[in-house]
Amino acid sequence: MLTKRIIPCLDIKNGRTVKGVNFVDLRDAGDPVELAKQYADVGADELVFLDISATLEGRATTLEMVEHVAEQVNIPFTVGGGISSIEHVNDLLQCGADKVSINSSAVKRPELINELSNKFGSQCIVVAIDAKQIEEQWKVHLAGGSIPTDIDLFEWAKEVEERGAGEILFTSMNHDGTKNGFANKALAKLSSALNIPIIASGGAGDIQHFVDTFKKGKADAALAASVFHFGEIPISELKKELKNNNIEVRL
After folding, report:
1. Can you give the pTM of this predicted structure?
2. CA-CA distance, 220 to 168, in Å (whole number)?
3. Which of 33, 53, 193, 221 has its CA 20 to 30 A from that of 15?
């Protein structure tokens, strides 16, 4: 049985970790480098850093922060935000990132997925997909969820896999920050349609939500922010409970 991963997500804006609800109403959650070290020390399997305003501001993720994080942690970490070129990915990996996450740039120019996968290997290319359920359809959104598209979540996810992505980070905008649980029906549909790992994001509020997303949503990893940042769910306690529910995790 493959081990399930627990991944704290640090949304970065102006050099600080922030957290909101449904992608808005952001509040400060601390220094990203300090939080990264804490998470590595308490048993997080990986970390994700998303520079959430980079795309909107038309700039690249800051390399300095990546270097500082790399000095402090001994677990894999993924960096995303405004990434749109081979050169930028190369810079991030040189600074110590293990993977990169692309989102809006991949939708605007899908060939980027092929180029990055061919150059660096699919194992370090994560495609993040922010989607919102509108009536019965899941539609992809860009630029931190601020720009809607007519692109279907499941069709796009399949194309992403075919183009060489190694993983998909799926965030349900409907569930983000609500603490009402993950979008398990959509996750299960993605999991059954694809052969690459799916990271569940959006909606974690208690330990049972993690149990459900692994069992019902068939997710390979679960990502959360505020419940970890504000100490509502200790990672060690979460992993013990997952183990008690016969979900294989690294303790």
Report:
1. 0.91
2. 10
3. 221
* Three-state SS at 130: strand
Rg of the Cα atoms in the chain: 16
Which is catalytic among the residues 130, 176, 212, 220?
Answer: 130
- Residue 75 is given by DSSP the state S
Contact 89, 120 (CB under 8 A): yes
Q: Mean pLDDT highest for which of 63-77, 186-200, 220-234?
A: 186-200
Task: Give the separation between CA 28 and CA 51, rounded to whole angstroms.
Answer: 14
Pick the catalytic residue: 11, 45, 51, 220? 11
What is the total residue count of the chain?
Answer: 251
Q: What whole-number distance in Å separates Cα of residue 116 and Cα of residue 124?
A: 9
Is 8:39 a contact under the CB 8 Å cutoff? yes
The 10s digit of each residue's pLDDT in 122-139 is 999 999 999 999 998 999
Question: Is 130 in the active site?
Answer: yes
